[in-house]
Amino acid sequence: MSRDYFVTETPFEYRHMCWFCGEPKQYSFGFPHNQWLVFHCTHPDIKIPACKECYSFALKAQVNSIWQVQISVKRQLMKRYKKDLAIGLNWTEDELANSGFEGGNFEGFQRSAWFMYEVAKGRVNHPSWPLMVNGVELPCEEETSFLFDGMAYPTIDDAIKHYVETFDLSLEFFRKIIAILGENKFARAVRYARLFVGSTPQEQAIALRQLLATI
Known about the structure:
Helix content is 47%, strand content 10%. By secondary structure, it is mainly alpha-helical.
């Protein structure tokens, strides 16, 4: 079944960019599309510019609005470039520059790692421009991203997953720490959880009680 799409209006400065990540556009992504039936889409059938990679991710998103597609694409970008994004959690640019890897097996890593981190971070952080159809902005009803340490995660759950996988944290333990401290103390939650990597459930229970006593 063919569809008649509204082509969204792209600001002049973004005319060559992917709406999802800011990379050079290669395709027009139409939503809804015939590969996933949508019964309660809250906006008109629209087309937006997309790069090849984001286009492929977007086609696989089984969701009900273009903003939910956006969240799904950002998650897939984080998954694919997990190792690159982890560089920024384990190193600073100065630490990499002075790491002493010259002439060794890690010389290539030293040269390219920070650049790859910044590219991956920039794509995840890309602030997609408002979607306009015939001069009218489409209202976005999705939750806002979770901002932490220079990264715009699709949701706080995505930030939690990223830190759990990067630092080998206990997911349940980390979530309980955040529940105690609150989202606004995410950095403290990360530091506290890292103190107990590899700890037993009993040790974690004691750690949680001790944390509660400090609140």
